Amino acid sequence: MNQAIPQTQLKHGRVISPASRGAVAIDLGLLGAWQVNEMEGGKNFPAMDAGPFPQPFETDSDSVAPPADGYILSGGKTDARDCVNYTDDEMSKKLGRSFNWPLLNVDPGQILEVSWAYTAPHTTRGYRWLITKDGWDPQQRISRAQLETQPFFEDFYPQVPYYSHAGELKAKVDHQVKLPANKQGHHVIVLMWIVANTGNAFYQAFDVDFQ
């Protein structure tokens, strides 16, 4: 008799290319794919508070509380998924060996291709991209103070209200982003998949090295 698939395995979605911190954690045996699919937290980030999504999308579902500083990369999850927030030193201690988050080599201003795998493709408002400031400290967990105050790119569907356009507001399997042209060296990128009809976004993080 076949066992039912646990409901925890049916959640949401994650980036499958390029490799995110979540993908690295899966490869290390620290997380299951379903956990990386479910790194969801309040969609108003980098704002601190729950409440209406900003105009002109205020008819979308209100945001729940966005992730706290230090737990941003896991979407606010503080269970096993907290490992994606770890600094290199924290990961080295957890693994009992020297560890550095793998870096994706990129060029300033290049187009980055991103692919997702969805297990529950929600009604989508869009995607928001943030990046660390120049001079950020890799020895500290990612906080709002470590990130640029404004997203470097947003890709939102304009249709409102979402409930009149649900069939059009589809999650994108493949999409592109133009990376900042003025960055050098190691940076962390935070990608949010923002859902229109819930209070959440799904968070994915990448370590990149601008050549």
Automatic annotation (TrEMBL):
Residue ranges that the Swiss-Prot or TrEMBL entry lists as coiled coil: none
Signal peptide coordinates: none
InterPro entries: Cellulose/chitin-bd_N, GlcNAc_Chitin_IntDeg, Ig_E-set
Keywords: Signal
Lineage: superkingdom: Bacteria
Keyword DNA-binding: no
Residue ranges of domain Chitin-binding type-4 in the record: 12-208
Pfam families: LPMO_10 (PF03067)
Location of region: Disordered: 45-68
Name of the featured protein: Chitin-binding protein
Gene source species: Pseudomonas atacamensis
